[in-house]
Amino acid sequence: MEAALSRVVRLGADHASMLDACARCMAAHAWVGGGAPKFNEALATRRTALQAAFAEAAQEIAQRIRRLGGQAHVPSFSTSISVMAPVPGAFSGMDIAAMTRMVADLQRAGQELPRAGQRLGAELSALCVSSPSVRQVLDTGAWADEQARDLRQRLTTIQQTHDVGTASKATAAFGLFGGHAPASGEINRLTTAAGKGDVTALKTLKDLQDTGEDATLAGRLTVWWRELDKTAQDQLIATSPGLLGALNGLPATVRDQANRKHLADQKATLGPELERLRASSAELKKTLKSLVEQEGSTRDPRQISANPVQRAQALQALGKNAAAIKDLELKLRQVTSVEKSLALGGQNGRPPAMLLQLELGGLGKTAVSFGNPDEADNIAVYVPGTGTKLDGFGDSNSDAHRAAVTWDQANEFRRDKKTASIAWLGYAAPQWESFLEMEGTPALDFAATNGAPLLASFTDGLRASHDAASGVRFTVLGHSYGSTTVGAAAQKRPGAFADQLIFVGSPGVTAKEVKDLKVGSVWVGEAPNDPVGDIGSVVPALGPDPSSGVFGAQTFYVPDSGDSVVSFKGHSSYWGDNSKSLSNIAHIINGDYGSVILHAEPFPSSTVTPPPPTGPPSLSLKGSSALPTERPSPHPQPSPVPAGE
Q1: Residue among 386, 409, 397, 405 at smallest CA distance from 531
Q2: CATH class of 2-175
Q3: Fewest CB within 10 angstroms: 114, 534, 545, 636, which?
Q4: What is the pTM of this model?
Q5: Are the C-beta atoms of residues 368 and 356 closer than 8 Å to each other?
Q6: DSSP codes, 605-631
Q7: Closest by alpha carbon to 40, among 99, 124, 107?
Q8: φ, ψ at 181 (rounded to 5°)
Q9: How many CA atoms lie within 13 A of 61 on its CB side?
C-alpha cells in the first residue's frame, strides 16, 4: 500500500501543476480585459480542483495506511503563481507569442491529464478505494483539450488579421477569449444568426447596442465580422446595408460601404414614391371636387346620401397622403444634407469622407468622418447641440463643415500624423420648439441622458475596430448641449471613454467636478461674448459652469468675436477661419499642449506723443507716455441675458 501511495504522490507531483503555466500567463496579462477575466476565473477553478484531486486521492490511501498502524505523509500539491505586476504603459493589446505558448500548454494538459486520470483510477481501484478525484482529473483534461482547440482556432484568426506580435484589445479579448465573454451565449446566438442573414438578429444586436449597457459588445462584433467569410459579408452588405452600417465595431470601410448603399437605395426609392403620392393626391382632389359638384347639382336623395361617405373617405386618404408626402420630403432633404456633407471630403487636401451611420426620418441621425478612424493616430469626435437636425447637417458652416475644418487645422499642424475628424449626430438633440417638453427641452438633461449610451456605444466601436494595438489619441469634443451629452457619456464609461475631452460653449456637463468625468485631460474654451457658456453659473440645471476654476478643467483662450451677446454669434465662433480657438482645438487633438494658447497676450507697451494740448498749460500732457493697452480677458464674463444656444 505504501508503494501505491508513492506512485500516486509521484503522479500528483508530475501533473497537479499542469495548468500553472497557463495561470501564470493569464496573471501576467489579465489587464487586457474583455472576456479574459472570465476565462481566468474558469482556469483558476480548474487548477485548484486538479491539485485538490491528487491531494484527496493520496489522503485516501494514507488514511488506509494509518488505520492499519502504519505511517504515511502526503505532501501538498498546491502551488503559488508569482509574476511581476503589470506596469501601466502605452501597450493595450495581447502578446501573441505568450498566448501561443498558453494554448500549447493547454493542449499538453488535455493530452496528459486523461492518461493520468486513468492511472490514478487504476491505483485506487486496486485498493478498492472510491473517490471523485478520478473524475475531477478526467474532467479537467477534457476541459483543457476543449479550450486548446477553441482558442487555437481564434488565435489563428488573430494572426491572419494582424501582421505584428500584438493584437488589439478588442481582438485579443473577444477573438481569443470570445467564448468566455459575459453573456456570450446570447450574443453568440445572435451573431451566428445574423451571419446567416437573419434580419431580426441584426435588429436585436442594434437594439442591444443602443442601450449602451454592454461595453464589450462592439469588440465581439469586430471579431464576428472578421470571422465571417467573404461571401457572407458581401451578402449582408447587399441585403441589409442599413442595419449593418449601424453596428459599432465593424471596420469603418465596411460601414461606409453599407451606409452609402443604404443612402443610394433610399434615394432611389423615395423619389418615385413621392411622385406616386403626389399624383394620388392630385386625383383625390379631383374626386373631392367632383363629389362636391355632384352633390350641388343632383336631386337624387340616394346619390346625396352616398356623397358624404365618399367625401369622408377621400379626405381621409388625402390626409394620409399629406403626412406621407411630408415625411418623404423630409427624408429627401436629409439625403441631400448627407450628400453635401460627404462632398466636403476630398476637397482642400482632405481625405474622402466616410459615412459611418445613417438613419433617415424624424430628426435623423448620421456620423461622417474625414479620415479613416481605424487607421488614425488622432481621432476626434465632435458632438453638436441644441437645434441640430440631419436636414441641416451639411449646410454651409454647419456641423459637417466644423468637423472638416477641424481636420484641416489638425492636419496643417501635424502632417506626420493621420487624423480622423468625425461629426456625430447619433442622438436626438434637444430642439427649441420642444422647450416645454421634458424629453426634448435643452433646459434639462433628459436628451443628454438618452444620448449618452448611444455615444458611449459609438466610441466603443471606434476603439474596437481600430487597427493599431496602441498609439491612438482619442478626443471627444462637445459644443453647446453636445458637451452635456459628452459629459453624461463619459460617466457611462468611467476611465474608458476617451483620452481627453474638449468642451466649447458649454451650459454644463452633468458633472459637479472634472474628476467626476474620469477622463485624464479635460479642456474648456468659452468666448467672452457667448451667453450659453454662462448658463451653468446662473442656472446650473445641467451642472456648474465647466469653465469656472471650481470645476477644475484646463481652460484655453477663445477671443471675443466682436458680436453682441444677444446675437448669439459668439456661440458659433469657435470654428472661425484662422481663429485662435480652432487652432487651440487642433493643438489639443494633436496632443501639442505646449502650443495651446491659454490666455490672451497683452499688446506690447508703446510710448505715444499726443498732439499739443488745447487746454490750460497746467493740463499739458506733453512728454507723457500712454498707458499700455491689453486685450480683453479670455475668461468669460457673466452675460446680461443668459439665454439659450
Answers
A1: 386
A2: mainly alpha
A3: 114
A4: 0.71
A5: yes
A6: P----PPPPSS-GGG--TT--PPP--P
A7: 99
A8: -70, 155
A9: 26
Grid cell in block for residue 505:
460653449
Q: Which residue in 389, 407, 343 sits closest to 575, CA to CA?
A: 407
Mean pLDDT of 259-266: 98
- Tens of pLDDT along 448-490? 999 999 999 999 999 989 876 457 899 999 999 999 999 999 9
Domain ranges of the chain: 2-175, 182-245, 347-595
Identity of residue 270: L
Angle at 481 between CA 478 and CA 483, to 5 degrees: 30
Q: Considering only the top CATH level, what class is 347-595?
A: alpha beta
Above 70 in pLDDT, residue 126?
A: yes
- Helix H segments across 70-198? 96-126, 133-161, 169-170, 184-195
Contact between residue 596 and residue 525 where contact means Cβ atoms under 8 Å apart: no
What whole-number distance in Å separates Cα of residue 56 and Cα of residue 634?
74
CA nearest 33: which of 158, 250, 213, 220?
220
Sheet holding 500-504, edge to edge: 353-359, 365-370, 419-425, 378-383, 473-479, 500-504, 521-525, 554-556
